[in-house]
Design goal:
Elements (H helix, E strand, L loop, with lengths): L13 E5 L5 H10 L5 E5 L11 H18 L4 E4 L2 H14 L5 E3 L4 H7 L4 E6 L1 H4 L2 H13 L4 E6 L3 H11 L3 H15 L10 E4 L8 H5 L7 E3 L2 H14 L18 E6 L3 H10 L6 E6 L2
Parallel strand pairs: 1-2, 1-3, 2-9, 3-4, 5-6, 5-7, 7-8, 9-10
Helix pairs in contact: 1-10, 2-3, 7-8, 7-11
Length: about 290
Amino acid sequence: MRPPRHHSDRAAPIGVFDSGIGGLSVLQALHTALPGEDIVYIADSAHTPYGERSDAFIIERSQVIAEQLRDTHGAKLLMIACNTASAAAAERLRQDNPGWPIVAIEPALKPAARATRSGHVGVLATRSTLGSDKFAALRHSIVDTHAGLHVSTLAADGLAAAIEHWAQSGDERACGALLDRYLAQLLAASDAPAPIDRLVLGCTHYPLLRPQIARRLPPGVALVDAGLPVARQVQRLLHATGLLRFAATHAVAPPAGRLELLATGSDDILRAAAERCLSAPPALAMRALAA
């Protein structure tokens, strides 16, 4: 791959991608942390979900989308807002794009491990994420540094696809049925000395259903996701590389950044999801891309 065209320009946008609409949860956190930054978001909706795809397929799609964000939109930083793509493709994208800042999301095990009082953390994620070497290494490092910590995981097959359907139709019955089944299984984990008190939402689709998940949990179980931590990581990296559009000491509040949403294939689901899930978005443009 060629080097990025505009990655050294502070006024260039942040590039964000996900397999579908899930990254909107990260997008909201990014806009909250960095309200003056322009953001270009690509949903690979023609190929969603990634969670049950092969690593080779995920890497190929991630390369295609990263190249579009880099060459067509001149993104100064790439944010992989998909846990599955981060686990499968982040290292390859970094190898392909030396010098381009790339931030990859991961399940929020670290903050959950710091916050738990019972010593038992649950993780709900895609099968691909949970089966990845990256997640295995993350889990091992967290357990090694938190004595007595127990981590229970469950692959929520079909949930991301159900959320895509809900975002367009407003019908959450399929989501509800899957949540009832998976949360009951995860919370019933019997091989730990204490119940789960922190539940990590390990796919960026899942925080879009945060209220629906929360009301199905017993008292004392808190939800943890990576949206705000990863937004702060992006902020730190932009500052460290001199690419932050407006300094934190800026005397006047910066103008709201522009948000452009793109989708491979039809943009109907992304449009509906943005209207349903984004609170007070900045100036918004949408269009469909070739798959």
